[in-house]
Amino acid sequence: MTSPETPTSSGQPQDLAKLIELAAAISAAQDAMTDDIVTRLASAMGEGMILMDRLTRNQGLMSLLQALNQPAVQDNLERLAEALRSGSVIETVGARTPKTGGYGGLLRMARDPDVQDAIYMLARVVKGMNPDDASKN
Amino acid sequence: MPETKVVDARNTFCPGPLMELISFMKRAEVGDQMELLSTDDGSASDVPQWIAKVGHELVTKEKIDDVWHITVKKVK
Amino acid sequence: MKILFVGGGMGGTIVANNVARRLAREVREGKVEITMLSATDQHWYQPGLLYVAFGKMALSDIVREQSNLLEPGIKFFVDPVEEFELAQNKVRTKGGVVHDYDMLVIATGCEAVYDEVPGLEEASETPYTREGATRMFKRLRDFEGGKVAIVVGVPHKCPIAPIEITFMLHEFFEKRGIRDKVELKYTYPIARIHNIENIANWAVPEFERMEVDYETFFNMKEVDVENRIVHSEEGTEKEFDLLVTVPPHRGMKVIEENNLGEGGWIPTDRYSLQMEGQDNVYVLGDTSNLPISKTGSTAHFQSEVIGENIASIFRTGLATREYDGKVYCFIEADKDRATNACFNYIDPPEIRAPTKSMHMLKMSYNQWYWSSARGLL
Predict the structure, then answer these.
(1) Which of C248, C264, C286 is the last residue in one of the domains?
(2) Residue of C nearest to B53 (CA)
(3) Of B11, B27, B46, the CB nearest to C190
(4) Which of A123, B74, C80, C372 has its CA 20 to 30 A from that of C104?
(5) What per-residue confidence (pLDDT) applies to B71?
(6) What whole-number distance in Å separates Cα of residue C377 and Cα of residue C374?
(7) Domain check: are C125 and C210 in the same one?
């Protein structure tokens, strides 16, 4: 029959050995760190801190992040990313670039239902940013 | 017209009472008196030593309630 | 409420950003207006000059555009103050602009002056100015051996500099392989080699190990440039082939010219940091007459007090905090180790043995300073 060992009495030598190993590792890492390495790392950390501070205190950005978090918006963003990745947007734009400009070219574009959808969406966004003008519609 | 200025260097570790006194002495006029207040017991020997080396005058030195009051006069 | 900050150096920038952060909403709503007046559009990390003097940093590493460091709500003008009219709560700038204020913070700092010691400017090298630091590195690099004397003026900013300069000189010449051809002769104005007793006690054996001669009670009086001898008020002298100085300092001329303080040192309350006799004027950093260390860390800790009090006075009419004299200084030793001195009005500094970790922390802080300047760190 084995008697239970108390955690502290059995754990101590192992913990101490681990601490010594950790201290040796830190010491070895310190020996490797030249002033230049420390300076570069610290500079990156410092600028990173400043950037985080700026971003988190920018109320506009924080509101935008909240808006971007909505599921519908995320869906749309993913579709946008996919479209960009697939190149279809670029191809489409390339294909639709009118070889002749002028009034006729503009009319052809305006008849396209997708173009109409895009104009409508843009108009909604612009109206949303000008709450005072909303009533004028 | 000579005047006595109080240099309150109580409870300061850096630059410390003697260096404060040296700063004041530089700006003082010949004949001016300064009363240095210090809670550092070292001042009791450092200040008179410096005054003697540089050639100014130690007027009084006393400890009142744990504070050294050392009055010196700028002589040159 | 109009809050005016005069001086855009380390102290002024930290405190202005501190206040702008605390009152960010009020600034946006137009209830608080924050203005800063400075003599320059550049912000220099002054402790970096020591590294420039030893070739470890370039001048471009230690300077940034002041406007980039300031919180967006701060109106910044490169137009230094020429006249203070405290009774009317106004200042007038060099450009002729009058700024009135409800609260004023003066953080104009101090500068090295050479007129008190004839011959010093011509004969000495110093890491205390930009031109000085650049020139000092060239002299150190070209120095082939001889007597190097270190002389210290009173008062000066960065009290640990004399010790650090000496350690760095020792190491510099060792690395160049000419340490045996160089005699290092350290002098200091008072009875021991540093005004903080624990630092002096720690440094003496270090000096002995490094074979640095030291002489105490040495206040420089004048320099015989031709014969290369520096004479002291105490009647002693030191010969030199290279003279390195921590020059004497004074507050900026504008302070004395406006009768705000003799020698440019403004009489300041130790705890509230208000200018004596002025309820709505605060003094921060080197320009105060407080008998405390003139360091960046002093200004940093003072700015927390002043920042909190200004915000609190705006919101409640009352100040909430007092400055306890806190100072925190790194001390670079040799062999990539450092220690630190941390003290206040009551607790003296305890000096621990130097470690590589502290040196790494100091190296890191040289970069993180810009976060401090922005009021973040």
Answers:
(1) C248
(2) C234
(3) B46
(4) C372
(5) 96
(6) 8
(7) yes
Query: CB–CB of A50 and C56 under 8 A?
Result: no
Q: Do chains A and C touch (3 or more CB pairs under 8 A)?
A: yes
Q: What is the pTM of this model?
A: 0.87
To test the contact with chain B by mutation, choose from C152, C154, C276 the residue with the greatest count of B C-beta atoms within 10 A, namely: C154
Number of domains comprising chain C: 2
Q: Which two tokens stand for residue C47?
A: 């402790």
> Taking CB atoms and an 8 Å limit, are A35 and C336 in contact across chains?
yes
Tell me if residue B57 is catalytic.
no
Question: Which domain range does residue C263 map to?
Answer: 2-109+252-327
CA–CA dist C16, C71 (Å, integer): 8
Q: DSSP state, C249? A: E
What's the ipTM? 0.94
Question: Tell me: the pLDDT tens digits for C170-179?
Answer: 999 999 999 9
If asked whether residues C311 and C284 sit together in one domain, one would say yes
Instruction: Domains for chain B: give ranges and CATH numbers.
Output: 4-73 (3.30.110.40)
**Neighbors of chain A by Cβ distance (3+ pairs < 8 Å):** C
Nearest chain B residue to C343 by CA: give it.
Answer: B13
Which residue, C249, C243, C59, is CA-closest to C159? Answer: C249
Measured distance CA(C273)–CA(C283) in Å, rounded: 6
- Here the tokens at position C265 are 């040192």
